[in-house]
Amino acid sequence: MDIKALVSQMTLEEKAGLCSGLDFWHTKPVERLGVPSVMVSDGPHGLRKQDEKADHLGVNDSIKAVCMPAACATASSFDRDLMGRMGQAIGDSCQHEKLGVVLGPAVNIKRSPLCGRNFEYFSEDPYLAGEMSAAYINGVQSKNVGTSIKHFAANSQEHRRMSSSSNADERTLREIYFPAFEISVRKAQPWTVMCSYNRVNGVYASENPWLLTDVLRGEWGFKGYVMSDWGAVSDRVAGVAAGLDLEMPSSGGINDRKIVAAVKSGELDEKIVDQACERILEINYRYLDNARPETPWDQEADHQLSARIAEECMVLLKNDGILPLNKTDEVVFIGEFAAKPRFQGGGSSHINAFRTTSAVEAAQGLPVTYVQGYSAARDMATDEMIAEAVQAAKAAKVAVVFAGLPDAYESEGYDRAHMAMPACQNRLIEAVAGANPNTVVVLHNGSPVEMPWLGKVKAVLEAYLGGQAVGIAAVRLLYGDANPCGHLAETFPVKLSDNPSYLYYGGEGNEADYREGVFVGYRYYDKKEMPVLFPFGFGLSYTTFACSNLRLSGAKITDQETLTATVTVTNTGSRAGKTVVQLYVGDRESTVLRPIRELKGFEKVELQPGESRDVTFTLDKRAFAYWNAAIHDWHVETGAFTIEVGQSSRDIEVSGEVTVESTVALPRRYTADSIFMDVMADPKAKEALGPMLASIQKAFAPNADASDTAQEAISADMGLAMMRYMPLRGLVSFSPDKVTDDTLKQLLDALNG
Ligand code: BGC
Q1: Do 432 and 478 belong to one domain?
Q2: Which of 231, 199, 334, 248 is nearest to 22 (CA)?
Q3: What is the side-by-side order of every strand in the sheet holding 651-661?
Q4: Does 229 qualify as catalytic in the annotation?
Q5: pLDDT of the residue at 54
Q6: What is the C-alpha separation between 719 and 310, in angstroms, rounded?
Q7: Residues near ligand 1 with C-beta < 6 Å?
């Protein structure tokens, strides 16, 4: 198909029309030229495809589909292959349902535990989010169906979501809020990108040329088309010019007419409209030319796949020897989520699951009884319900409480107000734990909660929102048919106010200032040496593992070279299992403020008891670099870096050191206001100061080299400090060499070469 030739046959009106949706879910056809329309649908963890009777708000029931675990869960798998398999299954279902693009993955950073959509997002860590996202995209797109990575960019709150401005400095955007998109574009080339509702530093993402064109296409090489989030368009003409190709959903022709008028008035170059059409049609035909509606969709098989994925995601947070349970013991499952699990979140990702399997159903055949404990919908527990639960707990060997957040507590559209579990559930857990020391808690929630009862229960299994087959996975893990292997993709802080965005989250009016900068999640908690409830990367197993023998390929590299780090991981327990080997890099000596450690590699490893395996990571410049806003580029500062390997951000088992040398000289310009400390740190400039340095040093600290007494040493230190912080212009007043304005000017010329 010659797309350019096709577009050249279109009228301006047809082209402008193609740049917005036909309705809620379709691109426009151009019947005159035989161009069909293509359907897109949510996404991301299964299909929310509305049938032909779709209402204009897109909220009516969708077709029966398979609800896979949400991203909060799948990120905890730290398993790229697993994400790929899930993507493939979703890709097949799209082919079956004649969908050209599935709207996801959603990769925004979990800046605060409060974000209402955290359940759909992967992580507080950009590298992990990017790797999981790229694996998912590659999986879906291997089936010739597109993805729409969303929401680009800095869309980390729901509060005022269509007007708020995410105000972050350049370095914070580049290091924290962009990389998940960047990694996905570079590694998986998503067919489409969905821009976010919010503004970024004042400019709507939907009309932000820096975001949609300079960075996305110019720097990262994105080749597909950009679509708007549903209703994210403010100024359509500015959007087209900025690189927003497709407006979704339909604007009833109003915005199309604005595009036509802008071209006619000369405000908008028609070539830009052509380009948008070409991009949209390229992608549409990539799907149409490869459409395979005969692809079978075995929902039963996907239900089982969903159970297997959930099993790889759940995180065992605590286990005082009570798990796995014994299949002959009398066990009581307490809590409505045991019978009616909360397995997905609310909003556009909500799936009409064709079936769900609860833990109660999955435990059939085992000596398990069930009591309700609380009502999730009414968010209450009567005294009778609690008394019944206590009674049942007393009679059983083990009590397993299925608890978590009811639907209303977290959803697309609004943020949480606190991090607490429902009071009735906390009360229930305390009461049950008081009645039976063998109490286990299984949690169904999309983001972290406080656990006031943690010290009173023997085990906690974090199931997250585990998809429609969550009960199968929970029971297999509880009884040891499977071994827990999920690790947290986010920190669980002790309390909400520990979170770095706590003071500013949500913003004032429409201004949401990302004042914590790059110190998001563990980057902050580690720097502050703060206790956390559960650290990033943490997860227990029914066996134990140890990392040892870290080998680095060199002690010194340049920023053009790569470093390989190899570590041995051993299953030191008595069961087969999987762990997540995590590699963190930290800049030991840096003039910029940097986190203690940042995740730069991970590998999920399966080992038999006693088995060992070597895991190798390759680190390039990016693993060591920070974003330098002065040169608008990644930069490595010459110096020592730590390489740490372990099984969580707070469980570093082996570490080493490498010196990385920069091959990039940062441009420097000295002025009369430059201070001595900075000049002296630059060897060339220090040399240019020549004898002037020695004489000014002598003036400020005459005894610096030969202090006889402690008092003299102190005053020499003081003198040197005064000098270090003095601007060069101070030479005129303080130098014994009688420096004039002219000599200062000559000096600056020499310094600046
Ligand atoms: C959401 C998107 C979603 C779209 C279509 C929007 O409200 O933010 O994530 O893909 O609706 O349902």
Answers
A1: yes
A2: 248
A3: 556-558, 651-661, 639-648, 577-587, 598-607
A4: yes
A5: 60
A6: 64
A7: 42-43, 58, 103, 150, 229-230, 348
Name the nearest CA neighbour of 145 among 289, 24, 277, 19. Answer: 289
Catalytic residue among 92, 229, 256, 415: 229
Mutate to test the pocket of ligand 1, among 229, 246, 248, 350 (most ligand atoms within 8 A of CB): 229
Residues 159, 542: Cα–Cα separation, whole Å: 41
The pLDDT value recorded for residue 52 is 65
DSSP string, 649-671: TTEEEEEEEEEEE---PPP----
What pLDDT, on a 0 to 100 scale, did the predictor assign at position 737? Answer: 81
Same-domain pairing of 386 and 463: yes
Report the C-alpha gap between 483 and 499 in whole angstroms.
31
Among 521, 96, 29, 32, which residue's Cα sits nearest to residue 301?
A: 96
Which two structure tokens, joined as six digits, stand for 147? 């993805």
Q: Ligand 1 center to residue 213 CA distance, Å? A: 22
400 and 337 inside one domain: yes
596 and 680: one domain? Answer: no
Burial of 339 (0-12, 13-18, 19+ CB in 10 A): middle
Nearest protein CA to atom 7 of ligand 1, as residue: 230
Which residues of the chain carry a pLDDT beneath 50? none
Pocket test for ligand 1, best of 26, 39, 42 (most atoms within 8 A of CB): 42
Assign residue 54 a region (left: φ > 0; alpha: ψ between -120 and 50; beta: otherwise).
beta
Contact at 8 Å (CB) between 88 and 145? no
Overall domain count for the chain:
4
- In this structure, are 278 and 312 located in the same domain? no
Atom 8 of ligand 1: nearest residue by CA position: 229
Residue with tokens 């930069």: 635
Q: Shortest CA distance to 429 belongs to which of 413, 447, 452?
A: 452
Whether 152 and 105 have beta carbons less than 8 Å apart is answered as: no
Which residue in 174, 177, 216 sits closest to 193, CA to CA?
216
The pLDDT of residue 711 is: 86
Q: What is the DSSP annotation of 535-549? A: -TT--B-SS-EEEEE
Question: How far away, in angstroms, is 153 Cα from ligand 1 center?
Answer: 14
634 and 732 within one domain:
no
Express each pLDDT in 376-418 by its tens digit: 999 999 999 999 999 999 999 999 999 999 999 999 999 999 9
Q: State CA 147 to chain mean position distance.
A: 17
In this structure, the number of other CB atoms found within 10 A of the CB of residue 487 comes to: 30
Q: Which residue has the tokens 């990039």?
A: 664
Cβ–Cβ under 8 Å, residues 182 and 129: no
> pTM higher than 0.90 for the full model?
yes
| pLDDT confidence of residue 690 | 85
- 686 & 657 share domain: no
Written as six digits, the tokens of 109 are 């950073």
Structural domain that includes position 353 = 305-507
